[in-house]
Amino acid sequence: MVSCVQFESVFLVFGTQSGSLFMYYIGDNSPTFIEELVHSEGGITRIWVNKLGTRIIFEDERHVVYFYNPLKHQIQQISASSGQMEEANWNHWDPHIFSLTKPASNHAYLYTSVTKGVKKLPHSVEQLSLAANVVVSKECPIEQTKAKAMFEDNLSMAYFDKAWIIATMMKDNMIWETLAGMALKHLELQMAMKACEESKNVVNLSRLHHMEDVEDKNLLSAKVLKLLHEYTDAFVIPTHPLEFIIKSQFYIYAYKF
């Protein structure tokens, strides 16, 4: 039995008491089935879909909240969400930012496809208004916030273009190195290379140029993690040990120049 329904853009999403989540495309004359998620932990009681129809938040009968990306079949429990929640809201401008509202608190979150787990946004992001379950937020004016704090806030939200603008005003090598490192963690190679050019880090710049043609994201992640000296995350508990050994050997060889 259907327990909750939402229509957003050209997508119809509904949940059932048995724990299924269905997604249909209704832009044509007849609905087209797209996706079904089977949630084994209990019935789905509430859903919130972003304005593009590409990300879904849902709550089950235990009052546990989950984030779901139907495009990549990714589901993530929001660990801090246990307990009664009043509402979930999507950011008006950024379809990857959402907030969860409880009686005494309001927490904003950012979704990125290359990081694991849930990340809260900084407290400097201000909520302006709420309309149709969409949060409209603003950034503090630059004259009211120190440049470094703004830079860090933009990095935490993966707004690398904005962080770049602030970095150009600060003209600090450490800022450029920080930007390069964070961009690498998000596999934004072009931004990382631009930052390395500004900081005159020719060693890392040369290494990054060797990564440009890597199409396998798993291999690229391993290369990036090793460059950042995070060896454990790159090679511990690999899904295919032999493949990772071969890849790691290739990586070591690639940097003997």
UniProtKB/TrEMBL annotation:
One GO cellular component assignment for this chain's record is:
cilium
Give the signal peptide, or none.
Answer: none
Q: Which GO terms describe its biological process?
A: intraciliary retrograde transport
Quote the Pfam families the UniProt record gives. Beta-prop_WDR19_2nd
Q: Which residues form the WDR19 WD40 repeat domain?
A: 2-115
Name of the protein this chain belongs to: WDR19 WD40 repeat domain-containing protein
**PANTHER family from the entry?**
OSMOTIC AVOIDANCE ABNORMAL PROTEIN 1/WD REPEAT MEMBRANE PROTEIN, WD REPEAT DOMAIN 19
